[in-house]
Amino acid sequence: MQKFKFNINGKGYEAIVEETDRNTARVELNGKSYTVQIEKEEAIVSPKIAAVKPSSSSADFVDAPQQVITGNAGSIKAPLPGNVSKIKVKEGQAVQAGEVLITLEAMKMENEIMAPAAGTVKKIYVAEGKAVQQGEALIDLA
Question: Among 3, 102, 129, 141, which residue carries the largest CB count within 10 Å?
């Protein structure tokens, strides 16, 4: 479930979107509920994560689960719920595409969150040991 606040022609709206299956969503708009058929899915850019198996030293690269990304275009969001085990960058640091920014532990596996593009770390929103939810902002890149 995701909650959005937006303006259309100066009028404020609040929407709650709950996916019921791949082609249908339940949308509550300013208190009124609708069931919506999804005609076309838009491509969403998600960071790549490396799934590291505890008993293995090699990493298999997988796509992060698809999710609606909101907010700052340079924001790196948590691709799944977990705990921040390591922060490998500092604010102001320049990073390259594919560089590991954060290690997120989820279901006893370490997932490396990598920079989707080169940039500079503008803001770090989390601390080591913090529990995060899917879609929560981790880092802003500029």
Answer: 102
Per the CB < 8 A criterion, the answer to whether 4 and 14 are in contact is yes
Strands 24-29 and 82-87: unpaired
Q: pTM score > 0.70 for this model? A: no
DSSP state of 47: -
Measured CA to CA, the distance from residue 108 to residue 67 in angstroms comes to 22
Decide: 120 and 95 in contact? Cβ < 8 Å: yes
What does the pLDDT profile of the chain (142 residues) look like in tens digits?
677 777 778 887 788 877 777 677 788 877 788 888 776 655 455 555 555 555 444 455 555 444 443 334 478 888 888 999 999 999 999 999 889 999 999 888 888 888 888 889 999 999 999 999 888 889 998 8
Domain count within the chain: 2
Domain holding 67, by residue range, is 48-141
Q: How far apart are CA 63 and CA 8, in angstroms?
A: 34
Q: Does residue 63 belong to any structural domain of this protein?
A: yes
Please choose, from the candidates 56, 111, 43, 39, the residue with its C-alpha nearest in 3D space to the C-alpha of residue 78.
111
